[in-house]
Design a protein that fits this description.
The chain contains 10 helices and 8 strands. With 262 residues, the chain is of the alpha/beta class. It has a 5-stranded parallel sheet, with helices on both faces. The chain has a 3-stranded antiparallel sheet with strand order 1-2-3, covered by helices on one side. A hairpin with a 2-residue loop joins strand 2 and strand 3. Helix 1 packs across helix 2 and helix 7 crosses helix 8. The chain is globular, with a radius of gyration of 21 Å.
Length: 262
């Protein structure tokens, strides 16, 4: 039985010279154009071929498809799918180079960071590349460790709050299941922290996620336009203290916006 590929855009019949007609699927590709999935029986044959070269090629093809699914499942938005550590432009700016070093170092030491649940806060002005580096960390970590079962998720603070509110009085998904979904990934990025209204409900909702991950020693990356004192107002002292525990990293993006924002 053929497993339905992730993020299928279109399905149509294909014709294979070896296996005849098969259901071909146009599948979304992370960071690039969609691609046709091809004959699944041919893929199976290549992965189990007697020729080791053909078998190795089939294994690589299969691994690439699995990685693509993991990257798509991360929730990194289209605008940031091509934001990588490699295309971060620091130039001669020492502060930007330092931010890149922090991001790269976090990925390279992810096994240690995961073991202790070390978190990261990327703070500073709008348009300074915080989301670029946050999603680049997430993407690169999945690329390095996805084959070992590592999972990651990108979301926004507003998205978490809306997901919890959507469960009120609704059938099916519960508030507890929303929190479970946020706590489950090995690495979670929470963007746009501080753009909310600053209500007690919002602070408590985000605390439930941050604390739940803290209790399971899972790293969280928080992205915000706020400085630490204002972030404490937006999240609460308990959340910020948990993010700072075990050597939690804070990187301030103090340069001017690349988008021309004030």
């Amino acid at each position: 039985m053929t497993t339905r590929p992730h993020y299928t855009i279109e399905t149509r019949a294909g014709q294979c010279v070896e296996h005849g007609q098969y259901p071909n699927a146009l599948v979304e590709q992370f960071g690039t154009d969609p691609a046709w999935y091809g004959c699944s029986r041919c893929q199976f044959d290549r992965r189990h071929a007697a020729d080791p070269i053909v078998r190795a090629g089939g294994a690589i093809e299969h691994a690439n498809r699995q990685l693509n699914a993991q990257l798509l499942d991360s929730g990194i938005q289209l605008r940031f799918q091509q934001s990588t550590l490699d295309n971060w432009v620091a130039g001669n700016d020492k502060a930007k180079a330092k931010a890149w070093n922090v991001a790269t170092g976090f990925v390279e030491a992810f096994a240690e960071n995961f073991e202790v649940g070390r978190c990261v806060m990327l703070l500073g002005k709008p348009g300074t590349g915080k989301t670029h580096l946050a999603t680049a960390i997430l993407q690169q970590t999945i690329r390095y460790f996805g084959a070992q079962g590592m999972t990651g998720l990108y979301t926004t603070a507003g998205g978490i709050i809306r997901a919890v509110k959507a469960t009120f009085g609704a059938q099916g998904k519960t508030e507890a299941s929303v929190y479970a979904d946020m706590i489950a990934p090995h690495l979670l990025v929470i963007d746009e922290v501080g753009l909310q209204n600053g209500t007690d409900f919002e602070r408590q909702t985000l605390f439930e996620v941050i604390n739940g991950r803290y209790e399971q020693a899972k790293p969280t990356i928080v992205v915000s336009n706020l400085a630490i004192p204002q972030l404490r107002d937006a999240l609460g002292d308990r959340s910020v203290d948990r993010l700072r525990d075990r050597g939690g990293l804070v990187e301030v993006f103090g340069w001017e916006s690349a988008r021309g924002a004030a």
